[in-house]
Amino acid sequence: MKAQNSGRKTRLLHVVRAARLTPNMHRVTLGGSELADFPTGQESAHIKLFVPESGQPAEDFGQLVRAGSKDITRRTYTVRHHRPDAAELDIDFVVHEGGGPACDWALRARPGDVIGVAGPGPIKTPDHGADWFLFGADMAAIPAAAAALEALPQDAVGHAIFEITTDDDIQPVRAPAGIKIHWLVHEDPHVSSTQQLEFFRALDWSPGVPGVFVAGESGAVAGLRSYLINERGLDKRKMYISAYWKIGLIEKNAKAA
Question: Rounded to two decimals, what is the model's pTM?
Fold first, then answer.
């Protein structure tokens, strides 16, 4: 399910710091005075990044953003952490072969570099009133899924299945104690995976209706959606299920996931 929020606007922010979170995940922390009115509690919400070209002067880029130019590369990402007191946002980028404008920007980002941020958009979360919870996410969706997990009630129970590229991509997630996190390694992200579907099928389902969060590569998500709706009989209107990306397809001013 998606909860609406307000405060959507475009801001010019700067890089506070950037560092590798895991071998295949890179975190960039953004800050600036324009975060002063960024709504709180937006972890897992999507934002649009307006990405400068390599070597583009910050002043020229800022003018384009302020003018609402459509000639700027835009990509959809997730608010992983927001620290209002420090005026900081953490954005996590999957590091992958061939990169892409946003990934390339993140890898070369240095303190003081600028970027445009529009949003936030809808928060991604399952129904908090569910009997138990079931999450499925690949690396591209882990930032949103992890943030949604951390926002669950502390007495929440269930399972989160996270698909990563290597064992070293396991990262801390402050989920409620009753949520069991399972890490599955899928070494080749260029091949659609069925591991999460197989795990869902083998899972000993708890009584009651689960709150579902499923996101990631479109082929894998399609299989999970079919299983949950057609075989388990769950109501698609009460689940968050979204294809964030497709193998071989590059996002071009894409809609938010």
Answer: 0.91
